[in-house]
Amino acid sequence: MTHLDIVVKGKVQGVLYRASTKAVADQLGVKGYIKNDVNGDVLIAAEGDNLALEMFLEWCHEGPEHAEVNLVESNEGELKNYRNFEVVKKSL
Fold first, then answer.
1. Confidence class of residue 90 from pLDDT cuts 50, 70 and 90?
2. Which of 15, 28, 36, 38 could form a disulfide with 67 if both were Cys (CB 3.0 to 4.6 A apart)?
3. What are the residues whose beta carbons fall under 8 Å from the beta carbon of 90, sequence distance 6 or more?
4. Which residues are the active-site residues?
5. Per-residue DSSP letters for 11-58?
6. In CATH, what number does 2-78 get?
């Protein structure tokens, strides 16, 4: 099990990026969350086995139909043992 902190840059807000990414995460068994950042990026915390995360990262580079992904940065982090994959709507 691996934890990745992922930042997706480009036209990734307002194009169903979060909802589409949740669907892919659920299919792959990836756990964690996705949320919009105030600067226009999308932030993802993802946990899963190496193969699932590799396929998940490939998806992050593509995104849904109307997204324009310019850059995906990922770094390994500490395992949080998420129970599912959630779309975080707003930061409190």
1. confident
2. 15
3. none
4. 18, 36
5. E-SSSSHHHHHHHHHHHHT-EEEEEE-TTS-EEEEEEE-HHHHHHHHH
6. 3.30.70.100
